[in-house]
Amino acid sequence: MGGTVTAVSRSAEHHFTKPNEESIRLLAGLGVEGDAHLGVTVQHRSRVAQDPTQPNLRQVHLIHAELFDELRTAGYDIAPGDLGENVTTRQLDLLGLPVGARLRLGAEAVVEITGLRNPCLQIEHFRTGLLKEVVFRDEAGELIRRAGIMGIVLSEGEVHPGDPIEVELPEGPHRPLERV
């Protein structure tokens, strides 16, 4: 099981979108070097307001490019970095991974998956109607979140578009992703 990195992005400031880069460096226990969400403790402004001492379980944000393909057919022109992700992937079912899955990005970097991104109202301000495309209830009434996954950096390294992604699943019963 694996996929490919199609784009990498970062922003030193808390902006909704992040510009694409030629590469990013993941720092163990911290996140993406030069990104506003870098840190041992939570850096997302809404989470900092609740409790700034929380551990940062959202060091790296990953989204599958197939979501952008689906959104284009729904009339939304979304490109890598537009939804604030650090790593855009292809050919990998990110949303189907369990908590604790590890992704080797390129030669050295390893990210452990902590949970689902819970998109905020900023996504609606970015494109009207987009929030209901990435968060909705299915026929059974279950809340579906499709705006990517979050993780923490276990091993540092450079990540480039075109890098392979290898998946290592955790042992034992797998826990499905929940919002973090």
From TrEMBL:
This is MOSC domain-containing protein. SUPFAM superfamilies: PK beta-barrel domain-like (SSF50800). The lineage of its organism: Bacteria, Bacillati, Actinomycetota, Actinomycetes, Kitasatosporales. It holds the Pfam family MOSC. PROSITE patterns: MOSC. Residues 18-168 form the MOSC domain. It comes from the Bacteria. It comes from Streptomyces fildesensis.
